[in-house]
Design a protein that fits this description.
about 160 residues; mainly beta; six-stranded parallel sheet; globular
């Protein structure tokens, strides 16, 4: 069994809840595929996507605009491919991973992750925040943009 969330529009205003919140509290999880969705907010909403204890699946070809955090992974793993994440919200992050595995690169000769475009333009806003996690972006053809006035790094 596999779960698909595809071709949806999520338009949030002033929300502290994630637009898409998927939590597994069982011992086994099923793959989750989140593809071709659009997430928009006025800049006052917390996360576009929050995944907790989700292992396997992919997050591909989504557009995420002006969330505090575009993709939040908590004890999860995912291939992240072809997404456009942008925010001008202060202290925002395109992808945040805690105790997780983030794949944004090739596996052999196949792109399972990569080709993401992540832009944050406000102060203290890295493209990725990673805590006790593994992430691989080498060779993934990702684009990470931050404002030239920001002294922080991409992650």
């Amino acid at each position: 069994m596999t779960s698909y969330i595809q071709f949806n529009t999520f338009n949030f205003k002033n929300s502290t809840s994630p637009a898409l919140n998927v939590i597994s509290s069982a011992a086994a999880t099923i793959p989750l595929f989140v593809d071709y969705n659009s997430f928009m907010t006025d800049g006052s909403s917390s996360q576009a996507m929050l995944f907790s204890n989700i292992y396997g699946g992919s997050i591909t070809n989504n557009t995420i605009t002006n969330y505090q955090t575009g993709i939040q992974l908590l004890s999860s793993s995912a291939d992240i491919y072809g997404n456009t994440i942008s925010s001008d919200v202060e202290n925002s992050s395109g992808i945040s991973a805690i105790l997780s595995t983030v794949n944004e690169t090739m596996n052999g000769s196949y792109f399972l992750g990569g080709y993401n475009n992540i832009s944050t333009s406000n102060s203290l806003s890295p493209c990725m925040t990673v805590e006790n996690s593994y992430f691989d972006v080498a060779g993934g053809q990702n684009t990470f943009n931050i404002s030239s006035s920001i002294t922080e790094y991409h992650w």
